Amino acid sequence: MSGIGDLQGTMFIAGERVTDGEGFFRAIDPATGTELEPAYPAAGDAHLDAAAGAAARAFGDYRRTSAEERAAFLRSIADGIDAAPGLVERVHAESGIAIERIEAERTRTTNQLRLFADVVLDGSYQGLRIDSGDPTRTPLPKPDLRHRFIPLGPVAVFGASNFPLAFSVAGGDTAAALAAGCPVVVKAHEAHPGTSEIVGRVIADAVQAHGLPAGTFSMIHGSSPELAVALVRHPAIAAVGFTGSRRAGLALVAAAQSRPIPIPVFAEMASVNPVFVFPGALESRAAEIGGGLIWSVLTGMGQLCTSPGLVFVPDNPEATTLLEAAAAALDTADAGCMLTPRIAASFDEGVARISAVPGVRLVARATEGSDAVARCTPTLFETDLSTFLAHREVLSAEVFGSVTLVVRVNDVSVDFDTVVDGLEGQLTASLQLEPEDHGLAGELVDRLELVAGRLVFNGWSTGLEVNDAVIHGGPFPATSAPSTTSVGTRAIGRFLRPVAYQNAPADLLPDALRDAAVGTWRRADGRFGDGAIGA
Amino acid sequence: MSGIGDLQGTMFIAGERVTDGEGFFRAIDPATGTELEPAYPAAGDAHLDAAAGAAARAFGDYRRTSAEERAAFLRSIADGIDAAPGLVERVHAESGIAIERIEAERTRTTNQLRLFADVVLDGSYQGLRIDSGDPTRTPLPKPDLRHRFIPLGPVAVFGASNFPLAFSVAGGDTAAALAAGCPVVVKAHEAHPGTSEIVGRVIADAVQAHGLPAGTFSMIHGSSPELAVALVRHPAIAAVGFTGSRRAGLALVAAAQSRPIPIPVFAEMASVNPVFVFPGALESRAAEIGGGLIWSVLTGMGQLCTSPGLVFVPDNPEATTLLEAAAAALDTADAGCMLTPRIAASFDEGVARISAVPGVRLVARATEGSDAVARCTPTLFETDLSTFLAHREVLSAEVFGSVTLVVRVNDVSVDFDTVVDGLEGQLTASLQLEPEDHGLAGELVDRLELVAGRLVFNGWSTGLEVNDAVIHGGPFPATSAPSTTSVGTRAIGRFLRPVAYQNAPADLLPDALRDAAVGTWRRADGRFGDGAIGA
Predict the structure, then answer these.
(1) Which PANTHER family does the record associate with it (chains A, B) (predicted)?
(2) Cβ of A446 and B504 within 8 Å?
């Protein structure tokens, strides 16, 4: 049993439970500011080297496991997380996240692991392609060419503070990497080491139960930038998954690029997730939009990469209705607890920066309902377009937490374009519209899709369906790799590269590329199908 | 008509023929060392800015062209290149490449453009995915999510010296980028400005004939590193395609990464393309392999990214047979002309570096048959494994040109692994084997696929079939982007990124993502198909 009482302050290095470290730290309950037992070791170079080296040694065998083996492994991890006693309570103690949200996050996390088990079994992620040869072609015979995507090698995953389950030890990056056939070395987030121990133990146990190489999974603790850089620069590491701040993400990217052999860093960073409210929508449901906005901004205390931080609204009388409804929603809402005292301090600084801009007006704040040390006071501002444009840099910068700025614009047909042309890359952009707005919206969609990874219509950007079609990515600085996604089944593609086999004898071909293989979709001689070749 | 006589020393900037520049240069006939008329202008900052700015302005309209329009445009370029008078002669004069090879390269180039026309029409490159919504799902409605891949924006393409047609102005990078919907700014290679003018004129004419935005295509001249860096750093440029040296490629990568908004550089760089000869193959066809090796090494005077520079052979008596056959093939072969005098000088230096290693033996040189100024003397060396391992760095470095080193190894089952574990990333690796070698080869294939992008069985790595299944890529330093290919239909993927549409009204969805769309393969609710949704 792995309840809270069992926490032993361990790292997991290739199947070994390691409790020694270069210094120790404890999690802090952000509600009370008190330290939580047990103490956790910070990894030193030897720990890191042991974990990364074991991952490199495990890679050869792990990548050759069958789809069935990897799927069963992923499902065992999901089952283990669902069953882990004390997990939800420890997440709450370490993060201040509301219990019902943690339960939902746990469901998302385990569903995600099971989804990647399905992806492995489906097999189409391998991108199989075949062009049959023709030895009789003149002047030169046509070679037989086939390719598939293979795993890159050991992946370093950095746990994120804001999703202690879904973007951490067994989160999306880990699920995608393990599904791809890559061993994983997790650097657990220092804000939730106990959560990480519980989940790490589930994975380590599953590695053992399924007879996989011990180095398939390791998890180390530590909070120093030097440790993070050393992990990214370790020669055994082949790719990096990260979700967090722009500053930290760019530091990892720089570290990866300065290696003798550069490696990709899939960093998901800052986004303000702009919302555009069209005149028809404003006219017909201003109050509903105002209330929905606050519901979205309050979700997870705004500590979501998709939290809407900027809302552009026509300066009609209904804009006031929208703001009044939003203010009313805030008045009846509670302040809350943030992930860490440091994040709460950053939030307060960010709110103060917005507040200090002349021409920005405070509309409402939710001040009641929390006496947390890491307290978040959800805040609503408004301003006009000229103020926004004059102070674009500070007003467009992400403030992590429940705060949003409504910007009144005069002429939607011109001003929305002006706004979009100056936007940095975004994870999402949202449109509130009615059929009569579609004409105007069509042009905005054309521009917005160049700026954002996901366009949301008549909904809110928070909340992410994890499936085949979702994209959680976007142009820099939303991510460091705009051609990829960190959520959804396509996320596996980040950890793969293609290899072609020319005129390979059948017995030296990977099974999935042989003529007789069935059941996996592939493109053969220009046609898609899941049957045998020549059958 | 665009024969040699018509050459006017022009750049093409958004439909304008530009003949002024910051200084002028002429091509040099590598056979004679004489300058070729006319003089070509070197682009200055204003030219570059005009070309990149026009590309940015063209992007919006060009990316919205229909598949039929882009396919017709690509086919017009192909037809124009096939029909361009004087093209083959000018390529020959500027590059020293043999006429029949130029004709073959022209065919490959125009076939490649037509292949990408087919790719555009096929449409599956868009990676369409749909997950239908379910408004009745509890506790939360399931959103409708759909995604497609859209073009990145203007692409900078650097012409390569060694393929004046297939990897230059209208080469693979340009074809893939234009197919994707990206405008292209070509920096023509300074070794073949006349060839570039002829091909550039064909593209510029096609842009006009098809009524496309003028900035869809521009081509500038110049040879300074500063110009190259300025192009990569121009804010309008969204991605870069490059084939050439490691030094130049890494300089472009560094420039791209130092931008305020970093962009991807798809650089194909150094590779020595190792060959592994297994005992059974050596026993049954040593002389054939020796002759085939020299044929491959002589192809294009070894100035191919896939030229085999290292051959590992069991130290059996038949190894001598292989070397004798190779030496005989070299003895009857001719020396030849290289692309430029500078490349010939680099080749001589590289050969001298190998020659200077104690323990390396010169087997044969082809000294007759050419009095070119940029003369290549094809050369065959041999050595033993201990010498190779002791001087690994110099003996594993690519020498661009017709030179190869045969390394005798004692124990294939151990020594091949030792060799592979120390290899840098490669574009290709080749295996010569017979059925009795398959047991040993299986393990080597496992290792080689982690090192190379294409494995060739019982054939030679030179010569590349351009189709769906080919991969021309590989781990660093073979390329800067190992998850991609620069040849074959997948090359289009380099210039795309995904965008998801959540709950989009049908009339605001891209056509290909609407329920009723037919004829393009997409993955809808977990199933592949090319029919309508719900039909």
Answers:
(1) ALDEHYDE DEHYDROGENASE-RELATED, SUCCINATE-SEMIALDEHYDE DEHYDROGENASE, MITOCHONDRIAL
(2) no
Q: Which domain-ending residue is among B199, B219, B242?
A: B242
DSSP string covering A414-451, please?
Answer: HHHHHHHHTPPPEEEEEEE--GGGHHHHHHHHHHHTTT
Which residue in the set A261, A442, A502 is minimally distant from B454, CB to CB? A502
Q: Per the domain annotation, does A128 fall within a domain?
A: no
Q: Domain range for residue B74?
A: 4-119+151-242
Residues A348 and A310 in one domain: yes
Task: Tell me what ipTM this predicted complex has.
Answer: 0.97
| Interface mutation target, options A100, A449, A483, A492, chain B, most CBs of B under 10 Å | A483
- Decide if B390 touches A, using CB distance below 8 A: no
> Looking at residue B312, what is its pLDDT?
98
Return the residue of B nearest to A142 by Cα.
B465
Subunit contact A143:B465, Cβ cutoff 8 A: yes
- Please report, for the domain that includes residue A383, its CATH number: 3.40.309.10
Q: List, for residues A492-504, the tens digit of each pLDDT value.
A: 999 999 999 999 9
Which residues in chain B are contacts of A526 at CB distance < 8 A?
A: 122, 468
Q: How many domains does chain B have?
A: 2
The answer to whether the beta carbons of residues A434 and A337 sit under 8 Å apart is: no
**What percentage of residues in chain A have a pLDDT greater than 70?**
99
Give the residues across from B157 on adjacent strands: B186, B241
In-domain check, residue A198: yes
In contact, B106 and B167? CB cutoff 8 Å: no
- Read off the DSSP letter of residue B391: T
> pLDDT tens across B391-445, in order?
999 999 999 999 999 999 999 999 999 999 999 999 999 999 999 999 999 999 9
* Same domain for B295 and B232: no
**Domain membership flag for residue A133:** no
Strands A496-502 and A336-337: unpaired
Is B268 tagged catalytic? yes
